[in-house]
Each structure stands twice: as C-alpha cells, then as structure tokens.
C-alpha cells in the first residue's frame, strides 16, 4: 500500500510539474526546454522503480512479488514513452506514430517475458517451485474465454469491457473534436497500442496472484487486485500523449483497475481467466478520448481564461472519471457478488451496442462531427522584388501610388509562381488558399503532404498553420464592467496627447488606423463614430461577420487606446478599420496574413484579395498587439516579407514587444523583431519599465524595443459599451499608433514617410526608468528603446516640418 501510494504520488506530481514547466516556458517566450521530459522520465523511473524492484525481490509473498514486477515494468514503460515528448508538439502525427510503435514494441517484450512464467489455475492456492502458484489447467467453458487464443468472437466479459470503454469515451465525443484524418488514425493506433501494453502487464499471470481460493474470493480479487491494477495504470496514463494529454488520462485510468478486476472475477466464475482482451479493449477505448478528441497544444494556460479548451477538457476528464467510478462500483456489485452468475453474451453485446450507438449520436448531434486538423503554409522561394519603387509626391497621394505599385508586383509574382502548385493541390482536393503579401499557399495536408511539398523546387519551407478545434458551447462575449472616465485617462496625459488636442488643436483628423486583433465592437459609444465605413473597412476571416464585432475584447481595448473618444484614445479624431486575426487568443500564420493583406489593399465583403484589392483605401498606420510564436506555426522569418512590403508601400507597422519579460532576448515572435517595425515596450505610471515587457536585443543584435508607452493599468473601451483596465505591451502599442496619427494629421506631408516619422518619434521621447537591480541586457535601450513616447513633442516637431522640438 505504501509503495503503491508513493508510485501514484510521484507519477502524478512529476507529470503535473513537467506540464507546468512547459507552460511557464511557453508563457515566458523562452526556447522549448527539450530536457524537461527526459529528466522527468529518469526521476520517475528511479523513484518508482527502486521500491517496486524491492517488492519484486524481497518479500516471500508471490502476490507481492508479482505486484512489484508489474509496477516496475509499468515505471520502465513510462520512462521509455515519456522520452518521446522530445518530438516538438507541432509534429503531433510524428509523435503519435512513435507512441504507437513504441507502446506496441513494449507490449510485445512484456508479453514475451510474461509467457515464460508459470500461470496458476483459476482459484488455485497451490504453490509450485519457488513459492509461485502452480499451473493447472482449468476446464474450458464455451464463450467464457473472452479474448482467449484461438477464439475470434468476443466473449461476454470482453463485450462488457467494450461497453465500459465506450462509456468512458462518451463524454469526449461531446466536449472534444477530432483532428485531421491521419492524426485521428494515429491516435486510435496509439490508444490501441497502449491498451495492448496494459493487457501485457495485467495478463492472466497477474490476476492469478489475487484469485485465491476455490472458487476464488471475488471481493479480494476486486479490492486488492483492482487496487494493484489501478496503480499499474497510473504510469501508463502518465505516458499518454504529448504534454497536456496525460492530465485527463491520469484522472481516468486508475479507477478502471477495479473495473478490470470485477471483469476478471466474473470470468473466473466460468472457470477461466478473462485474459488480456478485456484490458486491451477497455484501456484502449478509454485512452482514445484524450488522445483523439483533444489537441494537447490547446490544453494550455494561454486558453485558460473562461470556458475554452482547458475548461472543456477538465469537464471531459471529470465526467470520464465519474463514469469510471460508477463502472467500478456497478461492475463490482453486479459481477463480483457471491451469488452472481456468469455474464450472458447477449446482454453484454446489447450493452456494448447501445453504448456504441450513444457515442455515435452524441458525436453527431451535440458534438462536432468532422475533421479539424492543422493546415500547412507553403512559403515559396521567390518573393516579389520591391526594389526601386519611386517615392512619388509627399503625402497620401505619393503613398497611394507606392501602395498600388507594391500591390501590383506582389500579385503578379504570386500569380506567376503559384499556378502549377495551386492546380496540383486542387487536383488532390487539398483546398489551397493563395496569399500574395508573402508568396505562400495555405493547404490541407499531413506529414506526407508536407514532405512532398518540401521537396518541390519552388518551395522554400512548409510551416504548420494551427487550427483551433471547436468548443461544445461558444464562450460568452466579453463585457466591460467599468464606467466611462470623467476626462483623459492617465496614460493619455502621461504621453501628452491631451495637450496636443487643447494647445495644438490636433486630434488625428484625416488619418486612418488599421487594427488586426480579436475584432472591434463597432457599436461602442467611444468607437462607433470613428469607424471609416464602406464595404472595405472590416474583414473577419474566422467567422465572416459583415459588421464589426469582438468576442474577446482585446481588439476593442486596443483600438480604444488609439482612436477612442471620451478621453481614452490618443487620436480621437482619427478613423479606424479592423480585421480579426485572433480567435480565442490564438492565431495562425495564415490568418495573420489575411489581415495584413487586407490592410495593404482592402477589398469589399466577399471579394477576392488578388483582384479586388484597393490599395488607395489602405489605412495609414497599423496597430498590432499580437505576435506569432512557434506554437502557432511561425518561424522567425514567417512574416518578414509582409512587413517589408507594407513598409515599401508607406504603411507604418507598429507592433507590441510582447509580455515575456524580464528575460533578455525575449523580443522574438514576429513581427516585433523586424527592423521595419516600430516595436513598443511598456512602462507604468512612474515611467518605469514593467516586469512583463519583453526585452531585446532581437535576432542579429538589433536593439529593440524602439520606444515605450504606458502599458500597466490602462483603461479603455470593452465590448458592450463599458470599459476595462488591462496590462500589457498590447495596451502600449496602440498609443504609439495614435501618436503617429496625430503627427500625420498635423503634417499630412509626412504620411508614408516612414523614415522621417520614425526619426521624429525617437528623437522626441522622454527618459524612461529601469527598475533598480534589473538586468539591462547589455544596454538599457534593450529595455526602454529611445524612451517614453511624447505626443506633444512629436507633433510639434512634425508641425515644424521635421525638426525636433
């Protein structure tokens, strides 16, 4: 009992700690810690394996020694399978294939070793050589040897195991959704292989140690054997899936040990052991839930707010646990009671068929039938040549001329280089979506398609474009619960924007700010009047809504800080256009491109970006409070051609540094590290850099951020007409975009002149403070950039034609 409790405690704790470390690394923006899981595997094997080995060798009791051997084998299997988590989570198919192959190999090895040990007859207490129960053949009973060798049809005990496995699977058919076709197939194979490994561990020889007496005492078999079996299943649960998938399995599998013990007790009433088949079916079906119906990358703290994937996975795990406990009690009472008869095949078959039908109905009706696998972003080698584009006349006319030429070259390059590949993908029914801002194509496909695409001469690289799986119920829209401010909020005053309005008479009139975010509440009283309107000022590639809306609130907040009325926005006279590139706080390279393309050449609702783009309607400055980390599919250069094209078109891109401070070099996720992007860090009311603001230097030693703005405790608009206070470099970024809007409103000749505008912004900043004892990452500019943005000084300099004030 002590060793079993220790094994459970160590296994569960180590798995939770390993997942937590992964989440800390993810949220902190650090490089993936590949050694975490090998260390967890080694520690678990040593801490669980050592006392299990002692049990296997030292006691005189055959049952205790058998228990030690089984727990030791399970711990070693956990160690081997945990090492597979070195495979990056983005390559889920490769991981599942390795898991299936390794588990099947381990099952074969354990089965071979187990077959060499003598097996006691059911109910025999006689001891053979060495104190082991003697092997005496028991009388065969037709239909009772569920899963026995030579029998092809499922016996009643195996059918009851199938019914139990389907019952444990039932909640996942409701709360979850399947991935791609190959991913689903491999998940099923991995679950079956883990079931086979469980069957090899909990075989006839294992149960014989607890089937004492003639007939065997069912209560002892269920309680003691079930407890030992439950502990055995804990390491297998810990080895299930990539980091995150094992958490629900750790809750689900242990109670099933008692279910298996009850099934074994029922089988032994017929004079034979149940064999391995019930274990294989029950464990395999139960593990198919978390393996197939949940994406481990979505079991993350990034989605922990509200009722998103982590919530529904917890619901599924809790429901499965409840089902497992009910099955343990029900099967124990019905099958292991003293006067219980042998289970009948017809009744067991009816139960299995009924539950199979229930799983199918739940999956189709309240569930999400279909496949929701990741897509691929194919980046082509040839990108458009944007050199030599004439500057044109100063101001918006010149900017529009450059934007039109950039658009023409980008589309021409994409059409010329993508044709053959597009036709081939269409022929294969892979549903390609072409892009021109980065010469790329998004398409369906798994590892085989990715390998084929990577080998084509026109392809530079293939990225995984993440796709969120649907939820059982939509998250309620976010709502602001704070009242409108009485006057300019503190951050607007800190950057001097209110002085620009009152003393210089500039509010941003005539300038358009583009927002790519979670959306915008177009009905909000602080934002409604600022929407540019028309059929080309809003785009939602996620839900294809025709009017501005925002479920999460993040985009409404950032647009409010840029152009909101009622004292919350830096440039309340400017207009805004919007695009949705985030859904449930996650995006993908393709959706980021959807919005950036729309910002270069807006198109009408339902229009074709390649043919219906209107570069003369492009917004002037873009606020981007997002980043594309590896978990979403981006590599460092994924969006580099996009920002370069926008800069060539004279559109200023302002981007958040990120909230992965205080680590040096944490400005890493596109587009923040790019040289043609104005990257913004965050300070608090005291002009001091916040602890969460990401630090430079960026790749190649580039000093980042470029400057800082208020980002702690910022009040702005939120959906539903209210207001909310948020923290982050996301809140600082739109304020810099608003300052640019004020500058270009004061001096329209600066529109599109990115070099002069950037220089004015940096030359007119005021000092920002670095907290005492803080690592300056080689230079304080890697924390503060040029300093705190000063709207009043920047606008005065712009009004003077470019000379710093």
Automatic annotation (TrEMBL):
Compositionally biased residues, Low complexity: 121-135
Positions annotated as active site in the UniProt record: 517, 554, 730
Transmembrane intervals: 34-58, 70-88, 94-113, 157-179, 185-206, 218-239, 245-265, 277-294, 309-334, 346-365
Region annotation (Disordered) ranges: 121-149
Domain Peptidase S8/S53: 508-770
Biological process terms in GO annotation: proteolysis
Pfam families: Peptidase_S8 (PF00082)
Keyword Iron-sulfur: no
Record-linked PROSITE patterns: SUBTILASE (PS51892), SUBTILASE_SER (PS00138)
Top-rank lineage group of the source organism: Bacteria
GO molecular function: serine-type endopeptidase activity
Keyword Hydrolase among UniProt keywords: yes
Keywords: Hydrolase, Membrane, Protease, Serine protease, Transmembrane, Transmembrane helix
Family designation: Belongs to the peptidase S8 family.
Protein name (Swiss-Prot/TrEMBL): Subtilase family protein
